[in-house]
């Protein structure tokens, strides 16, 4: 998403050495003596400006327009590095590009207006100004380099797939279930505030793509303990989720009482209020107290008893998943345009 970011010195070295090469090439050509000095220096300065401008442009072109990204990625970038800081850094590169274009014109004219004897000193002056412009964007280049590192291994989301987010306390069986539902090894990508990263599993059912997302370290602990940015990391998932699988461990071998698990569910229901939830009681292969569990069932028709480890109840989950409708998140303005058309 972000290309390799050079330092100001690397940019200047490249610009200046290419400028020198271009001038050297011109040296072998027949040019009237009184013009030769300034033609050479003009070529040197103009080439340096162009090479540096090209470098900046290649960075600017490679970074996608943040506003055009899916809201999930906009949120992801915002939580990870800050959208405003990103825009500021790109704006600075754009600014430097503009100034270099200006210097290119200004010095090209200056060489033309002055005799060859002055060409070397004009060239030095131009190089000084070019260096000063490029050095001014040092912190912006640094920032983009940091952003590149931070945004590497972003999750690859299939926005056309029906997306199911798995939640529940640690050790209730989320990743075991994800593997049962999606088969192959899940994709593991970076996700802010998750130590193990986000896990994404894909499957197809009746020609429908489905992806399962597990976020260890995020949707597995009390939401009330979270700060604003951590909350944003959860809210980003709201742009994706078409349904939530909330997993209880009624055996409590995960180390958490059902009451605490239930409290987490209530918080998640509040955050994802628009999104349907399927409630799963896992580890049913272990002997469990039915009466005790029943206290925590609010929604019997959407509650299933499973054993992720044994694959027990997976087909019932799939039946529920088949009924899930992908939430249409097309922006309103697109809808209106289409309506006008018809
Ligand atoms: P996560 O932290 O929620 O992703 O939980 P894991 O999938 O890593 O499972 C935590 C532990 O519970 C592991 O030791 C699993 O083998 C075990 N486990 C998961 N599902 C079941 C199940 O259905 N029955 C039993 N007995 N153990 C399970």
Automatic annotation (TrEMBL):
<dbReference type="Pfam" id="PF17835">
    <property type="entry name" value="NOG1_N"/>
</dbReference>
<keyword id="KW-0547">Nucleotide-binding</keyword>
<dbReference type="InterPro" id="IPR006073">
    <property type="entry name" value="GTP-bd"/>
</dbReference>
<dbReference type="InterPro" id="IPR041623">
    <property type="entry name" value="NOG1_N"/>
</dbReference>
<dbReference type="GO" id="GO:0005525">
    <property type="term" value="F:GTP binding"/>
</dbReference>
<dbReference type="InterPro" id="IPR031167">
    <property type="entry name" value="G_OBG"/>
</dbReference>
<protein>
    <submittedName>
        <fullName>GTP-binding protein</fullName>
    </submittedName>
</protein>
<dbReference type="InterPro" id="IPR027417">
    <property type="entry name" value="P-loop_NTPase"/>
</dbReference>
<feature type="domain" description="OBG-type G">
    <location>
        <begin position="162"/>
        <end position="326"/>
    </location>
</feature>
<dbReference type="InterPro" id="IPR010674">
    <property type="entry name" value="NOG1_Rossman_fold_dom"/>
</dbReference>
<dbReference type="InterPro" id="IPR005225">
    <property type="entry name" value="Small_GTP-bd"/>
</dbReference>
<dbReference type="Pfam" id="PF06858">
    <property type="entry name" value="NOG1"/>
</dbReference>
<keyword id="KW-0342">GTP-binding</keyword>
């Amino acid at each position: 998403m972000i290309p390799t970011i050079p330092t100001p010195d690397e940019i200047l070295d490249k610009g200046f050495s290419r400028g020198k090469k271009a001038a050297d090439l011109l040296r072998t050509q027949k040019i009237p003596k009184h013009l030769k000095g300034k033609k050479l220096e003009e070529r040197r300065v103009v080439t340096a400006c162009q090479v540096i401008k090209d470098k900046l442009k290649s960075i600017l072109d490679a970074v996608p327009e943040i506003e055009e990204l899916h809201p999930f990625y906009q949120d992801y970038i915002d939580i990870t590095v800050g959208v405003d800081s990103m825009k500021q850094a790109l704006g600075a590169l754009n600014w430097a590009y503009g100034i270099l274009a200006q210097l290119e014109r200004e010095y090209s004219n200056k060489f033309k207006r002055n005799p060859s004897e002055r060409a070397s000193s004009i060239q030095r002056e131009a190089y000084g100004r070019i260096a000063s412009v490029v050095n001014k964007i040092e912190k912006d280049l640094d920032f983009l380099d940091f952003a590149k590192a931070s945004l590497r291994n972003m999750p690859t989301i299939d926005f056309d797939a029906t997306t199911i987010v798995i939640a529940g306390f640690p050790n209730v069986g989320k990743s075991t279930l994800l593997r049962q539902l999606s088969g192959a090894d899940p994709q593991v990508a970076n996700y802010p505030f998750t130590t193990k990263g986000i896990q994404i599993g894909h499957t197809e059912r009746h020609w429908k793509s489905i992806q399962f997302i597990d976020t260890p370290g995020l949707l597995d602990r009390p939401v009330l303990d979270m700060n604003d940015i951590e909350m944003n990391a959860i809210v980003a998932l709201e742009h994706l989720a078409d349904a939530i699988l909330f997993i209880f461990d009624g055996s409590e071998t995960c180390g958490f009482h059902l009451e605490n698990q239930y409290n987490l569910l209530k918080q998640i229901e509040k955050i994802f209020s628009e999104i349907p939830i399927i409630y799963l009681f896992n580890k049913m292969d272990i002997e469990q107290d039915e009466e005790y569990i029943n206290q925590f069932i609010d929604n019997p028709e959407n509650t299933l008893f499973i054993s992720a480890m044994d694959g027990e109840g997976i087909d019932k989950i799939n039946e529920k998943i088949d009924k899930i409708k992908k939430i249409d998140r097309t922006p309103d303005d697109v809808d209106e345009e289409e309506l006008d058309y018809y």
